[in-house]
Design a protein that fits this description.
With 41 residues, the protein is an all-alpha fold. It has two helices and no strands.
Length: 41
């Protein structure tokens, strides 16, 4: 029964990493990191 919380925790971490990589990919596709720095600044 202890494997269920661990498995769900890894599932959340996996989705967080996937979302982070997807965000970086979208920023890169929509104009690179210079555009992101301009938008942030």
């Amino acid at each position: 029964m202890n494997s269920i919380p661990e498995r769900s925790c890894w599932g959340v971490a996996r989705w967080a990493v996937a979302a982070f990589l997807a965000a970086i990919a979208l920023i890169y596709l929509f104009g690179g990191f210079q555009a992101a720095q301009i938008a942030a600044g």
